[in-house]
């Protein structure tokens, strides 16, 4: 009898967890992630029969030893381990996960695919030389899409035969920073990435920084990337350093930065968008048709117009003065007093003329406001700066890209002239930094010196430094004159 009781108590103890008082999961499918990576990773690895479970090393953020932490988290490890960084002392606040220098098998990747989406604070995933295959990359990509706050992915030293890195920046991707250095990306991979950046129908809207350094893109790949930059208006920083790019590929990249002629396919799509805008204008009486315009009315506004729209929203009193200024005749004032009321009721969308904002009603519906904002940020084919010249439709160019790195390539002074021409043709906005060092042209050639002069004026860091130097230089001079 005594033995039976002991056996019963032992079986009961095995079934019930001593901490939670619940029955422990029998399989990995039954396990519910808690958000504590260290705890979840160990338990899931045991449930999935991982023999050598990688360790988890925690590094908390600190302003005093930040450089030491970065070095520790990027150092190659002889033993498999996960290096994580916490937002605070809470073990459930993992904001960065780094895996470097050891081959990650499919089982461990399955464990991570269960855990990572449960980390609500995860912002960065760093995977360096982890031996990804086309199959495991697809699994990893699906996991990335499930992480709600993940915005930065570093995937370096993981060459894939199918070169399907573009899946990380699909149209619905929420990533803002992507590094694909040293992945042997060639022409085909660059073509896929260029198409992911933008096509005539669908541009990427969220990616801000793309690092493609130390690959083998070459001239053909650079041309594909330039095609993606034509209609992309989200990317700010692009690195193509050490990619064997010569004058042909560099010239195509330079041409996109300045005014360029639209292709036949782009013109056809532009006409479709204009017709669609006309139809929506006809369906909505509140939209005012354009007068004396050389082109069909645009259904969207430029970003500069948006800024003015936001200012007018903050200062509605200024707009109230406009009807008074327009009321020149004194007669019929009683009838005109009711006109603002009609405008407030009908004009739910701001008046537009030649693509520019002319006025805005105070009672603009929020839903329509949001709809217009979304449309105009993704349709550069309706840019108000587009003009007709010489039988061609000329686009003002990509002025959203602010940083371009082409160091360590095969450019000569021939392609520099194209860059100089594009930089001089850029209006508001445009490049703030352009790195062209370690190419095949002398550093003292005239074209390169002119480009440096232009960029030194644009670079905000150089502006601040030059301003400080001038101030320091002027003080002694003023004193001596006194």
UniProtKB/TrEMBL annotation:
Residues 318-349 have a biased composition (Basic and acidic residues). Residues 299-315 have a biased composition (Low complexity). InterPro entries: Leu-rich_rpt, LRR-containing_protein_71, LRR_dom_sf. Residues 288-355 are annotated as: Disordered. It comes from the Eukaryota. This is Leucine-rich repeat-containing protein 71-like isoform X1. It comes from Cyprinus carpio (Common carp). The gene is LOC109111946.
